[in-house]
Amino acid sequence: MGINRESDIAANLQIGPTTLGMVRIYVEAEGVELPLDFDPDEAEEIAEELRGAAQAARAMRAGGGKPDPRGGGRKSRR
After folding, report:
1. DSSP 3-state assignment of 16?
2. Which of 31, 43, 47, 76 is most buried as measured by Cβ atoms within 10 A of its Cβ?
3. What's the pTM value of the predicted model, to 2 decimals?
4. How far is CA 28 from CA 1, 35, 36, 61, 70, in A?
5. Greatest pairwise CA separation for the chain in angstroms
6. Are 35 and 24 in contact (CB under 8 A)?
7. pLDDT tens track for 28-53
8. Helix or strand or coil: residue 63?
C-alpha cells in the first residue's frame, strides 16, 4: 500500500515515552500490535516531518496540488 492510497482500515495510535528513555509510537489495528521505538532525536525529526506533511497537505487542499511521489519514511528500532 502506498502513502497516497486510501484504506478502510481503522487503527488506534498511542505516542509516549518508555521507561528506557525511548519514544514509542504504538499502532494497533485488526489484531496487529506494532510498537515502534525511536530515540528522542529521531522522534523530534519525525515530529518535524509530520509538521511538514501537514503544511504540504494544507497547501494541496488550498491549491489542488499533488503530493511528492517520493513521500517520506522512517524505520523503527524494534
Report:
1. strand
2. 43
3. 0.72
4. 17, 9, 11, 29, 26
5. 44
6. yes
7. 999 999 999 999 999 999 999 999 99
8. helix
